[in-house]
Amino acid sequence: MKQTSLTALIDRFDTFLLDQFGVLLDGAKAYPGAPEALAELSRRGKSVGILTNSGKRAGPNADRLQAMGFDPSHIDAVISSGEAARAVLSGRIGSSLARSAKVLVLSRGGDVSCIEGLDLTPTEDTAIAELVLITGSRGEEISLDQYADLLKGPATRGIPALCTNPDMTMLTERGPAFGAGRIAQLYRELGGKVDEVGKPHPLIYQVAIDRLGAAHPARVLCIGDSPAHDIRGAHGAGCRAALVRTGIHADEPLDQVLADAPPGDHPDFVIPSFAL
């Protein structure tokens, strides 16, 4: 593991997979210098993908980045766990998931884009739900105990859950809060079964590598702020990984961050921020 800078790494890699929150965005706005750094990667002919555990589909994530000052022409692809999960759900309809099955969607802002256009029916009634879809957390507004009260019934009845955002912590305008991954963990604690799509699981990396035409994963650099998600997932896909010192661990000493992570979650590089 080497502490270095983004500038020193640019020419060593052909493709860059960037986390969204913690690398480009702080939960409310773009980090200083991030739009300019993204522009420089594009200017040098690098393939750039945004690889995010957002439970929303690619379009809303791309729109948010543009609204925060990022030029969409500098981004070759946005790959979200919500987009990958939609493909998973589509494949299950008519087999393990009944057509028009009733789905309890836990999200932010009432987003149900993950199932829009699919033969599934959103419901807020936990008593009739046939699937729990965990796409986002409202952890800054709703306590974990409140989520437990909501989910106890479906978990007890053996209703399966799919989590499209495995992040345990998220950045919000009010500061860090528990993420959708923590809700998935809670569902397991209540006795339910959960499948997960997103970092560090391999499916989303394969989608990203294929989308960007990256023939050699070792020439791909993944940049993220979470050892357990971004670094572990990158190494599992055969890519190199850089830990950025912004995001969820920004206030923790690096030695402590790495001491809490198993060896496989240690980055190849550490950079102070996604800026030149």
Automatic annotation (TrEMBL):
GO molecular function: phosphatase activity
Gene3D superfamilies according to UniProt: HAD superfamily/HAD-like
Domain of life where this protein originates: Bacteria
Any single GO CC term annotated in Swiss-Prot or TrEMBL for this entry: cytoplasm
InterPro entries: HAD-like_sf, HAD-SF_hydro_IIA, HAD-SF_hydro_IIA_hyp3, HAD_sf
Short name of any one Pfam family annotated for the protein: Hydrolase_like
UniProt xrefs under PANTHER family: 4-NITROPHENYLPHOSPHATASE-RELATED (PTHR19288), OS08G0542600 PROTEIN (PTHR19288:SF90)
Protein name: HAD superfamily protein involved in N-acetyl-glucosamine catabolism
Organism annotation: Candidatus Rhodobacter oscarellae
Phylogenetic placement of the source organism: Bacteria, Pseudomonadati, Pseudomonadota, Alphaproteobacteria, Rhodobacterales
